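Re: [ENG-882] Designed sequences occasionally contain unexpected residues at chain ends

Forwarding the minimal case from QA. Structure tokens:
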């Protein structure tokens, strides 16, 4: 499939919005501090991004598929970190 200028705009938008998750994922992975992270928000976001991915696949939209594939890995990873580290009792 040939990409046109509209698809390039979509890829740029997807890259920027997906990259916005990286600092939070990295910091949470490094510090294991999840107290201020909302499980409800990341559950909702994970489901929403999954549905966007399904939508993109149905439309065969490369920018939507690419951005939401990576976003799903990142927000799903954050949700996993929240669940994993949220259950641990803090060391005193």
């Amino acid at each position: 499939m040939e990409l046109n200028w509209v698809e390039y705009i979509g890829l740029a938008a997807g890259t920027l919005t997906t990259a916005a998750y990286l600092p939070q994922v990295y910091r949470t992975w490094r510090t294991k501090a999840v107290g201020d992270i909302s499980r409800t928000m990341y559950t909702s976001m994970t489901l929403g991004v999954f549905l966007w991915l399904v939508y993109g696949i149905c439309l065969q939209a490369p920018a939507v598929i690419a951005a939401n594939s990576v976003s799903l890995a990142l927000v799903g990873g954050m949700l996993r970190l929240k669940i994993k580290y949220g259950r641990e009792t803090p060391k005193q």
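QA comment: On inspection the terminal residues look reasonable. The first helix runs from residue 5 to 19. Proposing we downgrade this to a documentation issue.
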